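Cross-check.
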Amino acid sequence: MPNFTFTGPYGDIECVVNNYKLNDVVLIMAHGFRGSRDGGGRSTAFAKLAEGVCKVVRFNFNGSQILSRQVEELQAVISAVREQYNPEKLFLLGRSLGGAASMVTASRDEKIDGLILWATPNDLRKTFLNALGDELYKKLDVGETLHLEDERGKMDLTSDFLTDLDKYNLTEIMSKWQDRPLLILHGEQDVTVDVAQGRKNFELAGGDKEIYTFANGDHTFSECATEANAQIVKWLYSRT
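Predicted model, tokenized:
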């Protein structure tokens, strides 16, 4: 597995590559808020499953949760992948906040051939009110820095995280997504990004679009990742 590393806008980025021998089609995955390229094993499992259809490239954002910086890093990964492989087709798969970064990036790059949104918001402020809870959200919104610590480690979240989100109108972005393929996957039990947001993204988009919701699906798809992964592979196969 010939992984490669390059210098991005905020430090070195290591790209983990599955099926390096398949050059025609590449899928780049962007992880969610406080996530990783492994996705608790779910992203790794998907990459293995998709080996017969496309090359899968996974990477970690360099610690910043600021959406604008994640967009910059994703753009840098896309440039590096094009330089490395010159793919005939290039797809993005974004999970949660990584889905928002993928939406923004794909809207600016007409050469992205399709977009897959996994538990991805339409209303960023509402999503992080749900994620942080009312008390922490209010502190962040008035300029306090949050010092978060849980099983995923420690992280400081500064108020510019929220103000940066305000730069992006995801409703407008999705309403302009009319000509390229779109796949949306969402759990009906998602309490962080409620399923109505996924349905709104679907309704706004036009053209070649599909949506799959999972009755037992939470935000991380802990009970339905295998089914979701299989659906993504099927969708990719039909468009490559």
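The chain has a mean pLDDT of 95. Residues 191 and 219 are 7 Å apart (CA to CA). Passed to J.P. for a second look.
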